[in-house]
Amino acid sequence: MTLTSAASLPGVIDNRLVALEARDIVRRIDAAAGPLWRCADAFVARGENWLTQRWLARLIRRATAMNNQDEALAWLQRLRSRAAGGTWSFLPDDRGVLTMVESMLPGAGDAAPVDATDTADALMPADPMRAVLFYVPGGGFMLPPTPRQREIAASLAEGFGARAEIGRHRLAPEHHFPVPVDDLCDQYISVMRSGTPPERMIVAGDSAGATLALSMLLALRNRTIAMPAGVLLFSPWTDLAMRGWSYITKGASSDSPFRMETAAFAARLYLHDTLPTDGAASPAYATLEGFPPMTVHCSRYDIHFDDAVRLAEQAEAANVPIRVNYWDSPRHHLERFGSRDANESIRLAADTARGWLDGQV
After folding, report:
1. pLDDT, tens digit, for every residue of 151-172?
2. DSSP 117
Protein backbone atom coordinates (compact mmCIF):
# COMPACT_ATOMS: atom_id res chain seq x y z
CA MET A 1 0.00 0.00 0.00
CA THR A 2 1.45 3.36 -1.05
CA LEU A 3 0.71 6.39 1.08
CA THR A 4 -0.14 9.15 -1.39
CA SER A 5 0.20 12.86 -0.82
CA ALA A 6 -3.55 13.06 -0.40
CA ALA A 7 -3.26 10.82 2.64
CA SER A 8 -1.38 13.61 4.40
CA LEU A 9 -4.27 16.07 4.22
CA PRO A 10 -5.89 16.96 7.58
CA GLY A 11 -9.27 15.33 7.05
CA VAL A 12 -8.08 12.22 5.24
CA ILE A 13 -6.82 10.54 8.42
CA ASP A 14 -10.45 10.03 9.44
CA ASN A 15 -11.23 8.33 6.13
CA ARG A 16 -8.22 6.06 6.54
CA LEU A 17 -9.30 5.29 10.09
CA VAL A 18 -12.83 4.38 8.96
CA ALA A 19 -11.40 2.12 6.24
CA LEU A 20 -9.18 0.32 8.74
CA GLU A 21 -12.08 -0.07 11.16
CA ALA A 22 -14.20 -1.56 8.38
CA ARG A 23 -11.51 -4.19 7.81
CA ASP A 24 -11.40 -4.90 11.58
CA ILE A 25 -7.77 -3.80 11.81
CA VAL A 26 -8.51 -0.83 14.05
CA ARG A 27 -11.18 -0.73 16.73
CA ARG A 28 -12.34 1.74 19.31
CA ILE A 29 -12.48 0.46 22.90
CA ASP A 30 -15.36 1.72 25.02
CA ALA A 31 -14.30 3.40 28.24
CA ALA A 32 -14.69 1.20 31.32
CA ALA A 33 -15.78 4.08 33.59
CA GLY A 34 -19.13 5.88 33.58
CA PRO A 35 -19.74 9.22 31.83
CA LEU A 36 -19.29 11.36 34.94
CA TRP A 37 -15.93 9.78 35.77
CA ARG A 38 -14.82 10.06 32.13
CA CYS A 39 -15.59 13.77 32.09
CA ALA A 40 -13.73 14.32 35.37
CA ASP A 41 -10.74 12.27 34.20
CA ALA A 42 -10.60 14.13 30.87
CA PHE A 43 -10.67 17.46 32.70
CA VAL A 44 -7.80 16.41 34.98
CA ALA A 45 -5.85 14.91 32.08
CA ARG A 46 -6.04 18.08 30.01
CA GLY A 47 -4.92 20.11 33.00
CA GLU A 48 -1.93 17.81 33.49
CA ASN A 49 -1.17 17.94 29.76
CA TRP A 50 -1.23 21.74 29.78
CA LEU A 51 1.09 21.86 32.76
CA THR A 52 3.41 19.23 31.28
CA GLN A 53 3.66 21.10 27.97
CA ARG A 54 4.83 24.23 29.74
CA TRP A 55 7.13 22.41 32.12
CA LEU A 56 8.84 20.58 29.26
CA ALA A 57 9.18 23.83 27.32
CA ARG A 58 10.84 25.34 30.38
CA LEU A 59 13.25 22.39 30.60
CA ILE A 60 14.19 22.79 26.94
CA ARG A 61 14.79 26.52 27.34
CA ARG A 62 16.95 25.87 30.38
CA ALA A 63 18.95 23.14 28.65
CA THR A 64 19.63 25.19 25.53
CA ALA A 65 20.62 28.26 27.58
CA MET A 66 23.41 26.49 29.48
CA ASN A 67 26.93 27.71 28.91
CA ASN A 68 28.66 24.43 28.11
CA GLN A 69 28.04 20.77 27.42
CA ASP A 70 29.40 19.55 30.76
CA GLU A 71 26.95 21.74 32.66
CA ALA A 72 24.04 20.51 30.53
CA LEU A 73 24.97 16.85 30.95
CA ALA A 74 25.37 17.21 34.72
CA TRP A 75 21.91 18.77 34.87
CA LEU A 76 20.47 15.98 32.71
CA GLN A 77 22.04 13.38 34.99
CA ARG A 78 20.19 14.90 37.95
CA LEU A 79 16.92 14.60 36.03
CA ARG A 80 17.75 10.97 35.28
CA SER A 81 18.39 10.33 38.93
CA ARG A 82 14.97 11.71 39.87
CA ALA A 83 13.23 9.74 37.12
CA ALA A 84 14.88 6.45 38.11
CA GLY A 85 14.12 7.04 41.78
CA GLY A 86 10.50 8.01 41.24
CA THR A 87 10.78 11.56 42.60
CA TRP A 88 10.46 13.09 39.15
CA SER A 89 9.08 11.87 35.85
CA PHE A 90 9.36 13.12 32.28
CA LEU A 91 5.58 12.84 32.29
CA PRO A 92 3.18 12.69 35.23
CA ASP A 93 2.74 9.10 36.34
CA ASP A 94 0.16 7.66 38.70
CA ARG A 95 0.66 10.61 41.07
CA GLY A 96 0.01 13.05 38.27
CA VAL A 97 0.48 16.74 39.00
CA LEU A 98 1.87 16.07 42.47
CA THR A 99 4.94 14.47 40.92
CA MET A 100 5.67 17.62 38.96
CA VAL A 101 5.03 19.94 41.88
CA GLU A 102 7.43 17.88 43.96
CA SER A 103 10.16 18.38 41.38
CA MET A 104 9.86 22.16 41.81
CA LEU A 105 10.41 22.09 45.57
CA PRO A 106 13.76 23.17 47.06
CA GLY A 107 16.22 20.29 47.20
CA ALA A 108 14.40 18.20 44.60
CA GLY A 109 17.46 18.22 42.37
CA ASP A 110 19.92 17.13 45.03
CA ALA A 111 19.63 13.38 44.51
CA ALA A 112 22.91 11.67 43.74
CA PRO A 113 23.47 10.99 40.05
CA VAL A 114 23.09 7.40 38.89
CA ASP A 115 24.39 5.50 35.92
CA ALA A 116 21.25 5.37 33.81
CA THR A 117 22.45 2.24 32.04
CA ASP A 118 22.50 0.40 35.39
CA THR A 119 18.92 1.12 36.48
CA ALA A 120 17.04 -1.38 34.33
CA ASP A 121 17.84 -4.87 35.54
CA ALA A 122 15.36 -7.67 34.92
CA LEU A 123 12.37 -7.39 37.22
CA MET A 124 12.25 -11.10 38.10
CA PRO A 125 14.82 -13.92 38.42
CA ALA A 126 15.76 -15.51 35.12
CA ASP A 127 13.99 -18.75 34.25
CA PRO A 128 14.71 -19.99 30.73
CA MET A 129 11.61 -22.19 30.75
CA ARG A 130 9.23 -19.25 31.21
CA ALA A 131 8.03 -16.84 28.58
CA VAL A 132 9.80 -13.46 28.58
CA LEU A 133 8.33 -10.00 28.15
CA PHE A 134 11.12 -7.86 26.69
CA TYR A 135 9.85 -4.37 27.58
CA VAL A 136 11.51 -1.17 26.34
CA PRO A 137 10.30 1.84 28.39
CA GLY A 138 10.00 5.27 26.84
CA GLY A 139 11.64 8.42 28.12
CA GLY A 140 12.32 10.60 25.12
CA PHE A 141 15.46 8.49 24.42
CA MET A 142 17.11 10.42 27.26
CA LEU A 143 15.72 9.10 30.55
CA PRO A 144 15.85 5.74 32.34
CA PRO A 145 12.71 3.78 33.28
CA THR A 146 10.54 5.18 36.05
CA PRO A 147 9.18 2.97 38.84
CA ARG A 148 5.74 3.21 37.26
CA GLN A 149 7.02 1.85 33.95
CA ARG A 150 8.60 -1.06 35.81
CA GLU A 151 5.27 -1.73 37.52
CA ILE A 152 3.49 -1.75 34.16
CA ALA A 153 5.99 -4.23 32.74
CA ALA A 154 5.64 -6.46 35.81
CA SER A 155 1.82 -6.35 35.70
CA LEU A 156 1.73 -7.06 31.98
CA ALA A 157 4.16 -9.97 32.28
CA GLU A 158 2.25 -11.41 35.23
CA GLY A 159 -0.92 -11.28 33.15
CA PHE A 160 0.36 -13.98 30.80
CA GLY A 161 2.71 -15.86 33.12
CA ALA A 162 5.97 -14.36 31.86
CA ARG A 163 8.97 -12.77 33.51
CA ALA A 164 9.69 -9.14 32.65
CA GLU A 165 13.02 -8.17 31.17
CA ILE A 166 13.52 -4.40 30.94
CA GLY A 167 15.33 -3.35 27.78
CA ARG A 168 18.63 -1.70 28.69
CA HIS A 169 20.29 0.83 26.44
CA ARG A 170 22.61 3.77 26.66
CA LEU A 171 20.91 7.14 26.55
CA ALA A 172 20.92 10.17 24.24
CA PRO A 173 22.45 12.63 23.74
CA GLU A 174 25.70 10.98 24.87
CA HIS A 175 24.80 7.86 22.91
CA HIS A 176 22.75 8.56 19.80
CA PHE A 177 21.35 6.27 17.11
CA PRO A 178 22.27 3.48 16.44
CA VAL A 179 23.94 2.80 19.80
CA PRO A 180 20.71 2.30 21.82
CA VAL A 181 19.34 -0.04 19.13
CA ASP A 182 22.56 -2.07 19.10
CA ASP A 183 22.40 -2.35 22.90
CA LEU A 184 18.86 -3.73 22.73
CA CYS A 185 19.79 -6.19 19.98
CA ASP A 186 22.65 -7.49 22.13
CA GLN A 187 20.33 -7.92 25.10
CA TYR A 188 17.66 -9.68 23.03
CA ILE A 189 20.28 -12.11 21.72
CA SER A 190 21.57 -12.62 25.27
CA VAL A 191 18.09 -13.62 26.43
CA MET A 192 17.91 -16.12 23.58
CA ARG A 193 21.32 -17.54 24.44
CA SER A 194 20.27 -17.93 28.07
CA GLY A 195 17.79 -20.55 26.88
CA THR A 196 14.60 -18.66 26.03
CA PRO A 197 13.57 -19.42 22.43
CA PRO A 198 12.23 -16.47 20.41
CA GLU A 199 8.80 -18.10 20.14
CA ARG A 200 8.56 -17.72 23.94
CA MET A 201 9.37 -14.01 23.84
CA ILE A 202 7.06 -10.99 23.56
CA VAL A 203 8.59 -7.60 22.72
CA ALA A 204 6.85 -4.47 24.02
CA GLY A 205 7.53 -0.77 24.32
CA ASP A 206 5.87 2.55 25.07
CA SER A 207 6.27 5.91 23.33
CA ALA A 208 9.96 6.39 22.40
CA GLY A 209 10.56 2.91 23.80
CA ALA A 210 8.26 1.61 21.05
CA THR A 211 10.43 3.44 18.50
CA LEU A 212 13.46 1.61 19.83
CA ALA A 213 11.65 -1.73 20.01
CA LEU A 214 10.65 -1.49 16.34
CA SER A 215 14.13 -0.37 15.31
CA MET A 216 15.57 -3.32 17.24
CA LEU A 217 13.30 -5.72 15.34
CA LEU A 218 14.29 -4.16 12.01
CA ALA A 219 17.96 -4.65 12.90
CA LEU A 220 17.36 -8.23 14.04
CA ARG A 221 15.50 -8.99 10.82
CA ASN A 222 18.35 -7.60 8.75
CA ARG A 223 20.74 -9.85 10.69
CA THR A 224 18.42 -12.85 10.08
CA ILE A 225 17.88 -13.35 13.81
CA ALA A 226 14.60 -15.01 14.75
CA MET A 227 11.67 -12.76 15.61
CA PRO A 228 9.65 -12.94 18.86
CA ALA A 229 6.13 -14.38 19.08
CA GLY A 230 4.54 -10.93 18.98
CA VAL A 231 4.92 -7.20 19.61
CA LEU A 232 2.88 -4.99 21.98
CA LEU A 233 3.17 -1.22 21.50
CA PHE A 234 1.69 1.49 23.71
CA SER A 235 1.33 5.00 22.22
CA PRO A 236 4.12 4.25 19.74
CA TRP A 237 6.19 7.01 18.20
CA THR A 238 7.16 5.77 14.73
CA ASP A 239 7.69 8.94 12.67
CA LEU A 240 10.59 11.03 13.92
CA ALA A 241 9.99 13.45 11.04
CA MET A 242 6.55 14.10 12.61
CA ARG A 243 4.65 14.41 9.32
CA GLY A 244 1.27 13.32 10.68
CA TRP A 245 -1.36 15.96 11.29
CA SER A 246 -1.90 14.75 14.86
CA TYR A 247 1.48 16.29 15.70
CA ILE A 248 0.06 19.69 14.82
CA THR A 249 -3.57 19.38 15.86
CA LYS A 250 -2.94 17.64 19.19
CA GLY A 251 0.38 19.32 19.93
CA ALA A 252 -1.36 22.69 19.72
CA SER A 253 -4.05 21.64 22.22
CA SER A 254 -4.22 20.26 25.75
CA ASP A 255 -5.12 16.82 24.37
CA SER A 256 -1.45 15.82 24.51
CA PRO A 257 1.35 16.52 27.02
CA PHE A 258 3.72 17.10 24.09
CA ARG A 259 4.18 19.90 21.63
CA MET A 260 6.00 19.47 18.33
CA GLU A 261 9.04 21.35 19.57
CA THR A 262 9.34 18.99 22.56
CA ALA A 263 9.26 15.93 20.33
CA ALA A 264 11.63 17.57 17.84
CA PHE A 265 14.10 18.31 20.64
CA ALA A 266 14.14 14.67 21.76
CA ALA A 267 14.35 13.37 18.19
CA ARG A 268 17.22 15.70 17.32
CA LEU A 269 19.32 14.58 20.28
CA TYR A 270 18.65 10.91 19.51
CA LEU A 271 19.18 11.08 15.73
CA HIS A 272 22.30 13.27 15.74
CA ASP A 273 23.32 13.20 12.04
CA THR A 274 20.79 10.52 11.00
CA LEU A 275 17.91 11.74 8.86
CA PRO A 276 14.46 11.55 10.53
CA THR A 277 13.22 9.68 7.44
CA ASP A 278 15.80 6.90 7.78
CA GLY A 279 13.68 3.78 8.25
CA ALA A 280 16.21 2.14 10.58
CA ALA A 281 15.71 4.93 13.13
CA SER A 282 12.23 6.09 12.17
CA PRO A 283 10.12 2.94 11.59
CA ALA A 284 7.37 4.82 9.71
CA TYR A 285 9.71 4.75 6.70
CA ALA A 286 10.63 1.06 6.90
CA THR A 287 9.05 -2.01 5.38
CA LEU A 288 7.73 -4.56 7.86
CA GLU A 289 8.01 -7.80 5.89
CA GLY A 290 8.91 -10.70 8.13
CA PHE A 291 7.61 -9.06 11.31
CA PRO A 292 5.63 -11.01 13.91
CA PRO A 293 2.02 -10.07 14.74
CA MET A 294 1.60 -6.68 16.41
CA THR A 295 -0.95 -5.01 18.65
CA VAL A 296 -1.05 -1.26 19.31
CA HIS A 297 -2.83 0.49 22.19
CA CYS A 298 -3.20 4.26 21.93
CA SER A 299 -5.47 7.26 22.38
CA ARG A 300 -7.44 8.97 19.63
CA TYR A 301 -6.21 12.29 21.02
CA ASP A 302 -2.54 11.33 21.28
CA ILE A 303 0.00 13.34 19.32
CA HIS A 304 1.23 10.00 17.92
CA PHE A 305 -2.19 8.75 16.78
CA ASP A 306 -1.43 9.23 13.07
CA ASP A 307 1.67 7.08 13.59
CA ALA A 308 -0.54 4.23 14.85
CA VAL A 309 -2.78 4.51 11.78
CA ARG A 310 0.19 4.55 9.46
CA LEU A 311 1.75 1.57 11.26
CA ALA A 312 -1.47 -0.38 10.67
CA GLU A 313 -1.25 0.44 6.96
CA GLN A 314 2.42 -0.53 6.83
CA ALA A 315 1.72 -3.86 8.50
CA GLU A 316 -1.25 -4.60 6.23
CA ALA A 317 0.89 -3.86 3.16
CA ALA A 318 3.50 -6.32 4.45
CA ASN A 319 0.90 -9.00 5.31
CA VAL A 320 1.77 -8.69 8.99
CA PRO A 321 -1.19 -9.29 11.33
CA ILE A 322 -1.92 -6.14 13.32
CA ARG A 323 -4.62 -4.82 15.62
CA VAL A 324 -4.88 -1.21 16.78
CA ASN A 325 -7.04 -0.63 19.86
CA TYR A 326 -7.71 3.00 20.72
CA TRP A 327 -9.50 4.89 23.47
CA ASP A 328 -11.17 8.30 23.31
CA SER A 329 -8.89 9.67 26.01
CA PRO A 330 -6.56 12.68 26.24
CA ARG A 331 -3.95 10.45 27.90
CA HIS A 332 -0.59 9.73 26.34
CA HIS A 333 0.32 6.14 27.29
CA LEU A 334 -2.83 5.86 29.42
CA GLU A 335 -1.46 2.70 31.05
CA ARG A 336 0.67 4.94 33.27
CA PHE A 337 -2.41 6.00 35.22
CA GLY A 338 -4.29 3.99 37.82
CA SER A 339 -7.62 3.89 35.98
CA ARG A 340 -10.10 1.29 34.78
CA ASP A 341 -9.06 1.97 31.20
CA ALA A 342 -5.40 1.41 32.11
CA ASN A 343 -6.24 -1.88 33.78
CA GLU A 344 -8.36 -2.94 30.82
CA SER A 345 -5.57 -2.07 28.39
CA ILE A 346 -3.05 -4.16 30.31
CA ARG A 347 -5.54 -7.05 30.55
CA LEU A 348 -6.25 -6.95 26.81
CA ALA A 349 -2.53 -6.82 26.02
CA ALA A 350 -1.83 -9.78 28.31
CA ASP A 351 -4.63 -11.79 26.71
CA THR A 352 -3.20 -11.03 23.27
CA ALA A 353 0.31 -12.09 24.34
CA ARG A 354 -1.05 -15.32 25.82
CA GLY A 355 -2.82 -16.08 22.54
CA TRP A 356 0.40 -15.55 20.57
CA LEU A 357 2.36 -17.83 22.88
CA ASP A 358 -0.32 -20.51 22.71
CA GLY A 359 -0.60 -20.19 18.94
CA GLN A 360 -4.23 -19.14 19.12
CA VAL A 361 -3.99 -15.85 17.21
Report:
1. 999 999 999 999 999 999 999 9
2. G
